[in-house]
Amino acid sequence: MAEISFPLPDLGEGLIEATVLEWLVGPGDQVERNQPLVEVETTKSAVELPSPQAGK
Predict the structure, then answer these.
(1) Which DSSP state fits 34?
(2) What is the pLDDT of residue 55?
(3) Is the pLDDT reported for residue 10 higher than 90?
(4) pTM for this structure?
(5) Which among 52, 43, 44 has a CA at the least distance from the CA of 9?
(6) 3: pLDDT confidence band, cut at 50, 70 and 90?
(7) What is the pLDDT of residue 30?
(8) Which of 6, 13, 26, 40 could form a disulfide with 18 if both were Cys (CB 3.0 to 4.6 A apart)?
(9) Who's near 21: CB < 8 A, 6+ residues apart?
(10) How far is CA 19 from CA 3, 24, 32, in A?
């Protein structure tokens, strides 16, 4: 499986990496601003990351 790195939004407490647990949208799906996109797990917890903007 390929590993892809990209900057995470600020998750707090200086966390710099996370593991993707589940993608909540598919390729080409229309999303709205603040719609949950992906669930990630850090060393502290599992969180859903929202879309920073609307689009595909």
Answers:
(1) T
(2) 87
(3) no
(4) 0.73
(5) 52
(6) low
(7) 93
(8) 40
(9) 39, 40, 41, 46
(10) 11, 14, 23
Starting at the earlier edge strand, list the strands of the sheet with 46-50: 19-23, 36-41, 46-50
- Domains belonging to the chain, first-starting first, are 1-56 (2.40.50.100)
Query: Which two tokens mark 15?
Result: 């966390």
Residue showing tokens 């593991």 = 19
Phi-psi sector, 55: left (phi>0), alpha (psi -120 to 50), beta: left
How do residues 24-56 score in pLDDT, each as one tens digit?
A: 999 989 999 899 999 999 888 898 988 888 888
Residue type, 27: P
Do 32 and 18 contact (CB within 8 A), yes or no?
A: no
Residue type at 1?
A: M
